[in-house]
Design a protein that fits this description.
Layout: E1 3-10, E2 21-24, E3 38-43, E4 48-60, E5 70-72, H1 80-93, H2 97-103, E6 115-122, H3 135-147, E7 150-151, H4 152-159, H5 163-171, E8 175-182, H6 202-216, E9 220-226, H7 232-245, E10 249-253, H8 260-271, E11 275-278, H9 284-295, E12 301-304, E13 316-322, H10 339-350, E14 353-358, H11 363-370, E15 375-379, E16 390-395, H12 396-401, H13 410-421, E17 425-429, E18 438-441, E19 458-460, E20 465-467, E21 474-476, E22 489-492, H14 496-506, E23 512-515, H15 525-534, E24 540-543, E25 556-561, H16 575-587, E26 598-603, H17 609-615, H18 619-633, E27 640-648, H19 651-672, E28 677-689, E29 692-701, H20 705-719, E30 728-733
Parallel strand pairs: 9-14, 9-15, 10-12, 10-13, 11-12, 13-14, 16-26, 17-24, 17-25, 23-24, 25-26
Antiparallel strand pairs: 1-2, 1-4, 3-4, 3-5, 6-7, 6-8, 18-22, 19-20, 20-21, 27-29, 27-30, 28-29
Helix pairs in contact: 1-2, 6-7, 16-17, 19-20
Length: 739
Amino acid sequence: MNRNIATVAVEKTFFSIDSDFDYYIKSEQLSLIKIGSRVKVPFGNGNKLREGIVVNIFSAINSSLKEIDSVIGDKPVISEEAVLLSLWLKERCFCTTYECLRLMLPRGAGKVGDASRKTATLLIEKEEDLPKLTPKQKKVVDLLFESGDVSINDICEICDVGSSVVKNLEKYGVIAIYDKEIYRNPYKNIEVGTPKEINLSKEQKNAFSTFKNMMKNGGGSGLLYGVTGSGKTQVYLKLIDEALKNNKDVIVLVPEISLTPQALAIFHSRYGNKVAVFHSGLSLGERNDEYKRADRGEAKIVIGTRSAVFAPLHNIGLIIMDEEQENTYKSERTPKYNAKDVAIFRCKYNNALFLMTSATPSIESYSNALKGKYTLCSLTQRYGDAKLPQVITVDMKQEMKNGNKSPISAILKEQIAETLDENKQVILLINRRGYNTFIACNDCGHVITCPNCSISLTYHSTNNRLTCHYCGYTKKLDNVCPECGGDNIRYSGYGTQRIEDELSFLFPNAKILRMDADTTSTKFSHEKMFNAFANHEYDIMIGTQMVAKGLDFDDVTLVGVVNADNSLYDESYNSAERTFDLITQVVGRSGRRDNSGKAIIQTINPYNQTLECAAQQDYETFYANEIELRRLLIYPPYCDIISASFVSDNENKTAMCAKKFFEILVDMNEEYKQKIIILGPNASKIAKLNNNFRYSLFVKCKNSKIIRTLFSETLKKLSKIREYKDVSVSLDLNPYDLN
């Protein structure tokens, strides 16, 4: 006889097992268990209870199955769309179904309780039915007749009565007191204004019309490419208006928390409490409540960082990915998903539009657009009468020859002074935090490194300490070489702290704001700092890449890139792309609306082609050069890359495990017969991190089901070798960084 069976994704299982598990559904559970339900199941030889989520229900005969122990909650926690997405992600992220399902739920789901407040409601509908009341009691009842349910605290404050008055009304059966769920809203104090009318230029109208028609006709993927300040935001706000008009839900993705404040100000003024916010800066309670608002349909727009792509909206019409080229959309933790891939899946499922926007699209996205895979619309002019900034490139080698040993060139110093005299503002980009980036001994050449990681320590002047930005190790600077004991210590390189000190010396009257990971660690620090800068409380803002993108300040007329070469000579295949993106974006912060702007790019290689293209805001030329290089060297988009990472506290075992993976992969490909190019295995760029040794292997291939199966089977075969059970092995499809 057939019985009802549930397939359950069980927590704490391993990808190498590569299986979800079937359980009988007890007859009394039939009405409770649906796809997406949380359950407890007996697992393993000891039948220890583990949590799981139901991913399928079917009927069959299988006498060997165990039964589901219990059901958690009275309704599914995951939609059928989310279940399908998890199964799709599992295969591409080389992880378990349960790990993917957890992405769909807020952190702490099931462990963080609802917030509530004691609230009074009237039990008597007509005034004539009321018993005789004291004046104070009458005051309370009048308030409830007028306003409906009111919290006890508000009653006491508004009516100027004590809690005993309210309790007596409950005792007499006039009111009932209950716990009313409230939302922990982190942005409840944001002022909601009147939405401004958006007047589009001809280019903007064409783009809006194209994407609006796509939204109407079954969706698809589009790329809105526009120079900095061209008004990409106005286009997608009009598209959001259109989606809401048709009762559709919207997700807006931004690359990092620092971009959220300005975006929120725009969205809250336009859409009020229809907006929910998803990002890691919120408390667990706040995240849970924003999740519930989206799930219940109370919020129609979700804005946030990478994880917002999983928002539980049920009628998606539009997903927007702002600054689509950013690496933060790719997760570096298991499951190693790319938010872009997830957005495309969800838009296909919902017949929605996926719109990517950027002034510097990724090479892969622009290539896809030119091939017709994405619909491309371009904005070639800045919005209104605004002009692109004048860009000056400074050769820092010449500055040294002229006797200027400061990280601030003579022309940058001069331009800052002029800008401040005009009561305008300055943004300076230096993509390194700290004071000095490494400390070395002049006598023996020893570089002071982290004892846990294979990188140099960074000097921070504020606390006179050396710090590792990877593992957090810190020690006091004592000016003694740990190798030879000498005191001839050299401080090299410079970060945001050093630039702050330099500017404080050069411009003692200027108010300087430093934004980096050291100054923005507290909750809402980004919002406070950006608001302060926008309100002219500061004259100069110095920062890492968080100040480079997506920001719009009316009075910024000068931007400086202190060391444009920082990322240019990285070992990654996409280092030129990263550099071009960063410099183009930060230059674009200068000269908005009626203000003309200038940008100063400091470099030791002023004739570098990437820097020249960035200075001219010439994406097309940069793309043409870069795509040809990628073709010759066979890098994305001409191939996909799968990386395998090996980590353990034993260097030899880590290296041997990587070598064994290589051997198994080559052997198994004799059967699969796929065209692959294997690079490595080698020690990773950062060979030691937090006392663990790291090896990597990279494979150029074409992403396909058979390729993913080849790697999955290789990983499973390796996992059966007990010698390497202590080595952590992970696979990543198209990592952003080859390290």
